[in-house]
Amino acid sequence: MSNPPARKIIHIDMDAFYASVEQRDAPELRGRPVAVGYAAARGVVAAASYEARTFGVRSALPSVTALRRCPELVFVKPQFEVYKAVSKQIHAIFADYTELIQPLSLDEAYLDVTANRRGIETAWATAKEIRARILEETKLTASAGISYNKFLAKLASDQRKPNGQFAVTPEMGAAWVETLPVGRFHGVGPVTAAKMKRLGIETGADLRDKSLDFLRAHFGSAAEWYHAIARGEDERPVNPSRERKSSGSETTFDRDLTEPAEIEAGALRMADEVWDWCDKAQAFGRTVTVKIKFGDFKLITRSKSFASAVRTQAALRTASRELIGLVLPPEKGIRLVGVTVSNFETEAGPADALPLFGVDVDAA
User: Fold this and answer.
1) Which of 52, 96, 157, 311 is 20 to 30 A away from residue 300, measured at CA?
2) Over 50: is that where the pLDDT of 357 sits?
3) How confident is the model at residue 105 (pLDDT cuts 50, 70, 90)?
4) Torsion-angle region of residue 13: left (phi > 0), alpha (psi -120 to 50) or beta?
5) Do 155 and 145 contact (CB within 8 A), yes or no?
6) pLDDT over threshold 80, residue 344
7) What is the model's pTM?
């Protein structure tokens, strides 16, 4: 039997999505360093324009640090309903080319165009046409990675940012991966990258040289994934029905809180944000978790699982109030609270995650 044809996967990633939307809609912001977020003492940058990035301003950076690096930085309040509306425009374009669309967030998605619905000669040309339509219809730029699997396509989309595209062919995939730092690999975060460095693993070539037994001894269940991606291998399909595992929201207070009423009010605000998503997506979970971070950065969680899903806002608020009450009054100040619902009984809706720190984090 002949082998099936290689998949043709495109990873589309909008360029500095939130910041670019703000610059598009406010001409006075164009060409200026812009951060989406809040300039509060404990604010966090949700997204940074490319002008801001030249100063080292990045998403998830504390606002105070961002302003220190770039005193001319302009903060704008996030407008998530606007970003969601633009995201829907973009996904409507994707749907003209394939049914196999796996959103990762509002601003990025995998597309499997192996079936070639529009009869375009190559996946490269397909990506180019999609990016051109996004620019024409939204006035925003996107970057694309094209390859035979999801891992490589996502890596490739970073190669020509902003407003470019890059392809990794089957002939070049394994060798290309060997040249890259492991910190760029999906599934290798800063902590794991530091651990790998201590073990003498800094590039894809270093990772490939390690045996599966060695990787199992040091990385447990992740070993098979690291072993595969070091060789440019990834068999995961583009899954348009990928289920959402949880929905959560958290906020960092402007100051450490010790008053029970203020802490409870913060938890209830997060519960209301989570409920808003659950209600719209018609996705209801059995487990409610409250997250608490103290002023000394010690982190704890308190959870409760129910026999059936939490299906009313009042029930979610009650559960959140009871869980936060387990640590009240606090022995020390609390800087952050969060609420998460998990163990869904129904399939979740679109993967437009609720905000962290009061805002989404745009890593593009």
Assistant:
1) 311
2) no
3) confident
4) beta
5) yes
6) yes
7) 0.74
Q: Binding residue per annotation — 360?
A: no
Please report, for the chain, the start and end positions of each structural domain, with discontinuous segments joined by +: 246-344
> What does the pLDDT average to over 305-310?
91
Round to whole Å and give the CA distance between 232 and 148: 10
Q: Which residues, in sequence order, are CB contacts of 338 under 8 Å at separation 6+?
A: 248, 249, 250, 251, 270, 290, 291
DSSP helix/strand/coil, 188: coil
Task: Give the Cα separation of 279 and 269 in Å (integer).
Answer: 15
Backbone angles phi, psi at 65, to 5 degrees: -65, -40
Its sign, for the CA torsion 280, 281, 287, 289, is negative
Residues annotated as catalytic are 108
Of 10 and 352, the structure prediction assigns the larger pLDDT to 10
Upper half-sphere CA count for residue 188 (Cβ side, 13 Å): 25
d(CA 20, CA 224): 38
| Residue 352 assigned ligand-binding role | no
3-state secondary structure at position 16: coil
Position 350 pLDDT exceeds 60: no
How many other CB atoms are there within 10 angstroms of residue 314's CB atom? 9
Given a cut of 50, is residue 331 above it in pLDDT? yes
For 8, the token pair is 């043709």
CA gap 229, 232 in Å, rounded: 5
What is the spatial distance between Cα 269 and Cα 43, in angstroms, rounded to a whole number? 17
Q: 246-344: CATH homologous superfamily? A: DNA polymerase, Y-family, little finger domain (3.30.1490.100)
Question: In Å, what is the CA distance from 289 to each residue of 41, 249, 274, 338?
Answer: 27, 11, 11, 8
Whether the CB-CB separation of 130 and 138 falls below 8 Å is answered with: no
pLDDT tens column, 217-250: 999 989 999 999 999 999 999 988 766 778 898 8
What is the pLDDT at residue 363?
A: 33
- What pLDDT score does 299 carry? 92
